[in-house]
């Protein structure tokens, strides 16, 4: 996805980190990751901008155990690099199938993503997937904003 977005905006894809902190997952996220609701995870929330237009809101969750052992490098690599670029460079990475959803206004992801667009909509399209680094899971959830793929030249 990152590669396609970079092609669409002629390499002018920007990652803006909104928040990166230790938090507890939502109930839905804890169930999907198979971790305790009170577990601390490193949450990384970003907006991806193509041609300076917000295209996608994304939230990645990294359970604490991911940073133990040889994978601890990823905690220091989380700067303004799209998470896809980091994950697909890792030789022992694999991914579950994507889950797709039409999220409505009462969903936490809709509420967070909607802050970055003023286009009226009653839903957003989203996808999520678990990635594994040496069998240690992390979660990536992506919410597609209404202007994805547009440019300022339109």
Can you put this structure into words, describing what you see?
There is one protein chain. With 154 residues, the chain is of the alpha+beta class. The chain has a single domain, classed as Chorismate lyase-like (Chorismate lyase). Helices cover 21% and strands 40% of the residues. It is built from 5 helices and 7 strands. Strands 1, 2, 3, 4, 5, 6 and 7 form a 7-stranded antiparallel sheet that branches. Strand 6 (123-133) and strand 7 (136-144) form a beta hairpin. The radius of gyration is 15 Å and the shape is globular. The mean pLDDT is 84.
Topology, pairings included?
Layout: H1 2-8, E1 13-23, H2 27-33, E2 41-50, E3 53-63, H3 73-77, H4 83-89, E4 93-95, E5 99-104, H5 108-113, E6 123-133, E7 136-144
Antiparallel strand pairs: 1-2, 2-3, 3-7, 4-6, 5-6, 6-7
Identify the notable features of this structure and list them briefly.
154 residues, seven-stranded antiparallel sheet, Chorismate lyase, 21% helix
Indicate the low-confidence ranges by residue numbers. Answer: none
Q: What is the CATH superfamily classification?
A: Chorismate lyase-like
Q: What name does CATH use for the topology?
A: Chorismate lyase
Mean pLDDT: 84
């Amino acid at each position: 996805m990152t590669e396609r977005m970079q092609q669409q905006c002629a390499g002018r894809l920007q990652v803006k980190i909104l928040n990166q902190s230790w938090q507890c997952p939502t109930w839905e996220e804890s169930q999907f990751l198979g971790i305790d609701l009170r577990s601390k995870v490193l949450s990384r929330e970003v907006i991806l901008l193509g041609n300076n237009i917000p295209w996608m809101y994304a939230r990645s969750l990294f359970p604490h155990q991911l940073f133990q052992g040889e994978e601890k490098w990823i905690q220091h690599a989380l700067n303004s690099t799209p998470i896809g670029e980091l994950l697909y460079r890792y030789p022992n990475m694999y991914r579950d199938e994507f889950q797709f959803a039409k999220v409505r206004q009462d969903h936490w992801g809709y509420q967070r993503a909607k802050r970055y667009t003023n286009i009226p909509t009653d839903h957003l399209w989203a996808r999520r997937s678990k990635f594994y680094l040496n069998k240690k899971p992390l979660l990536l959830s992506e919410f597609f904003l209404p202007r994805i793929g547009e440019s300022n030249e339109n």
